[in-house]
Amino acid sequence: xxxxxxxxxxxxxxxxxxxxxxxxxxxxxxxxxxxxxxxxxxxxxxxxxxxxxxxxxxxxxxxxxxxxxxxxxxxxxxxxxxxxxxxxxxxxxxxxxxxxxxxxxxxxxxxxxxxxxxxxxxxxxxxxxxxxxxxxxxxxxxxxxxxxxxxxxxxxxxxxxxxxxxxxxxxxxxxxxxxxxxxxxxxxxxxxxxxxxxxxxxxxxxxxxxxxxxxxxxxxxxxxxxxxxxxxxxxxxxxxxxxxxxxxxxxxxxxxxxxxxxxxxxxxxxxxxxxxxxxxxxxxxxxxxxxx
Length: 292
Prior knowledge:
alpha+beta, Alpha-Beta Plaits, eight-stranded antiparallel β-barrel, 8 strands
């Protein structure tokens, strides 16, 4: 987790009343502003990098900071680590960064310097939640504490093709509605850090849900109706420069979440160490009672 840049400010439309990601157990909507850090990790240094990242978690935990984040590693695509920090507004983002204590600031600067050893590059983005382009986003946040993966699709829109882009999404989501797709997807538009870029997030507890989603895709295609499949393809070709889908694994070690968030799946978010688990499993010796 890198130092939060003071004026790399997040996005505007997202969630109008939700504060930190895990500060509530089941917020109804995704956060309005999302601070996204995407790090490119050197090959073979993932384990060492993850260990270093626990230093940020410890530092913020010791400072009792209410600024929570979700850390993830990519299992497909480029060898990357992602960090998502939610905010309710740009003002909150600025205030949170400026109010860090000198001790916390010094520690994060030390960790940033050490972390550079494991990275070949990074991108910092501030994105705004686009409820109007999302599919039942209210389903995402309640499922997040018990999820272990994100399916992430990064879309680059052609400049000047806003209407075609929105129409393509609406057409596909209408078909998903007809096909009774049960999961939710939140779409964020990057306001700072990339141009004409959108990032979609869909949470899963296991990849078996992705298998079921592939089966549902056929139902969605059928639900488009006669002739709409070709229309959707044309809208997509006209409005998109590129798209990339990847699976991100949630990393409990690199994530700093609230106790309430972790309590939804403690075995995943707060796993006991092997030594601790062994000591708890070991039966206590019973002392023989002395006869009176």
